[in-house]
Amino acid sequence: MNCLAWRRTITNSAPTLFCRFLVLPVLGIATLFAGQTASAIQADPMQNPVNVDERNQMQTMAVVNGEPITRQQLADECTRRYGKEVLGSIVKKILVLNELERRGIVITEKDVNDDIAQKAKTLGFSTDHYIELICTQRKISIDRLKNDIHWQGLALRRLAAEEIAVSPEEIQQRIEFEYGPKVQVREIVVDSAERAQNLLQQVRANPEAFGNYAKEYSINPNSQAVKGLLPPIARHSGDPKIESMIFSMSPGDISDVIDVDGNQFIILRCERIFPGVELTADDSIKIQDRIIKEVSEAKLSTAAASLFDRLEKTVQVTNVMNDPQLSQQYPGVAATVDNKQITKRFLAEECIARFADVMLETEVDRALLNQALKERGMQVTQEDLTAEINRAAQSFGYLKADGSVDVQAWLNYVTDNDRSKIDFYVEDEVWRSSALKKLVEKSVSVSDEDMQKGFEASFGPRVEVLAIVLRDNKEALRVWQMANANKTEE
After folding, report:
1. Parallel, antiparallel or unpaired: strands 317-319 and 264-274
2. Which of 122, 222, 269, 292 lies most in the core, judged by the most C-beta atoms within 10 Å?
3. pLDDT level of residue 35 (50, 70, 90 thresholds)
4. Residues 118-135: pLDDT tens digits?
């Protein structure tokens, strides 16, 4: 189905239900689950409020020891957590559809299938394997893979074609980055200009000891552990000023002190120069084609954001759901696009289609835990929740200067600075963890052996190693033989 038909399809078809009957006798759960398909509605969501046809929908999504989890319950919870995200996605899709129609651009099902086949080929997969892999990993249907990923990507590329064009200069820079010469250096990084100058005098007086000085004095823990050695540096990979200096050096040369924003001071020693790769004419053509595709994709997100900004300025979009006054005035409406309504019911069904599997698992867990707590006469109190939040914050090192737990910083971290998500974090994570602790705390004991292992893990001896990580056993064996023949850090 092409996405231009998305708006029409939801007006005419009843949902196809892919039902799965799952029996978990140990937990006493019987689950009936409706597959992720586009919601069926009787009216165009862009013209009239959406009325979802509920005749073919399962109203009970799961039964947990006789306690039903209803479709409405699932819709409410999905919308609470994901409604804002899904509504934004729906609005963006409508804006793109309108712009495609305005420009006379049509994306066919063949276009989408070809895009999927090309993506699979790029990754080295068959088309079927790619579809199965993505749908399984993301827990989405094939329909969503086509309409929400590949169709949208194609639409944005065609609408933003001029903005994602790749210039000859960009192609050349990318070729130089990937196939041009590279320079390997050691670095010493300190936070004082005076200390850097003192070290510069010492390493110039004794260049072969540069690595030892890096090991002792450098404040960059990643390179300090290997005596300041950095991976080979390519052109167009970092600060042009530093890069220019690096590529002007010969093996054994030591740079002047490089001042990085007055916070860090770097000294470099050139270790080795790797020549560039000689490319044949055929190689160059293939590489350029690949680079154009990759750079275009990299530009797409920025171009898409710019495109949406322009479209939103030409179309009146009103978020009714987030406006208390408008919500009272239009109780069944989630948003309007040029005064055309997206109903809350349609939004709820879209949320179910995308997140029902995740939310259903959460609700089943919640029901099971509530039942177990009730059976044992237990309950999770506010004190339990507060204690669990404090424990989590402390265990991840969120402490103030005085050693007390920095709860606010922890909550900002777990909610990505979105305070509206705190309630969901408490409901879905903190409450669940607290409930499990209530149920098992009397059966948990800590042995002397556990204490000893914990002590050794925290305060026992440590070993520092160098590691080489490779993709296959054959290559690993070859490098292992080379490393055994030359047992140096390099």
Report:
1. unpaired
2. 269
3. very low
4. 899 988 899 999 999 998
- The letter for the amino acid at 486 is N
Element (H, E) at 145: none
Pairwise CA distance, residues 358 & 217, whole Å: 49
As a residue count, the chain comes to 490
Name the one residue in this structure whose structure tokens are 């064996």.
Answer: 477
Torsion sign across C-alpha atoms 420, 424, 429, 435:
positive
Map tokens 């009272």 to a residue. Answer: 328
Quote the CA–CA distance of 443 and 436 in Å, as a whole number.
12
Which residue from 10, 27, 19 is spatially nearest to 60, judged by alpha carbons?
19
- The Cβ of residue 196 has, within 10 Å, a number of other Cβ atoms equal to 21
For the ranges 6-15, 302-311, 375-384, the one whose mean pLDDT is highest: 375-384
Both tokens of 228, joined, read 């300041």
Nearest to 111 by CA among 154, 142, 143: 154
C-beta separation of 422 from 411 below 8 A = yes
Whole-number Å distance between alpha carbons of 475 and 483? 12
Strands 258-260 and 67-70: what pairing? unpaired
DSSP state string for 279-346: --HHHHHHHHHHHHHHHHHHHHHHHHHHHHHHHHHHS-EEESTT-HHHHHHSTTEEEEETTEEEEHHH
What are the tokens at 434? 């607290």
- State if pTM tops 0.70: no
Residue 393, H or E segment: helix 382-395
- Residue 478, judged by CB atoms within 10 A of its CB (0-12, 13-18, 19+), counts as exposed
Helix axes 431-440, 344-375, angle to 10 degrees: 20
The structure tokens listed for 454 are: 């914990």
CA distance 427 to 434: 10
